[in-house]
Amino acid sequence: xxxxxxxxxxxxxxxxxxxxxxxxxxxxxxxxxxxxxxxxxxxxxxxxxxxxxxxxxxxxxxxxxxxxxxx
Length: 71
What we know:
This protein is α+β, with helices and mostly antiparallel strands. The chain has a domain of 43 residues. It is built from one helix and three strands. The chain has a three-stranded antiparallel sheet with strand order 1-2-3, with helices on one face. A hairpin with a 2-residue loop joins β1 and β2. The protein starts with 6 loop residues before the first strand and ends in a 22-residue tail after the last helix. The mean pLDDT is 91.
């Protein structure tokens, strides 16, 4: 069993789920559906490409907001 970092954001009418470790993206109409779909997408990625080239340990995520002028 392995955990993968997934970020889910609301964009228009969908929740977009992204796994940056694998560069895999999925979506769903609900948060639960997006989570289910990204899990399936990750499983399909692993079936296709394996995990041999992935680092064994992933650094803990750091999320923050930054202010940008003139936006």
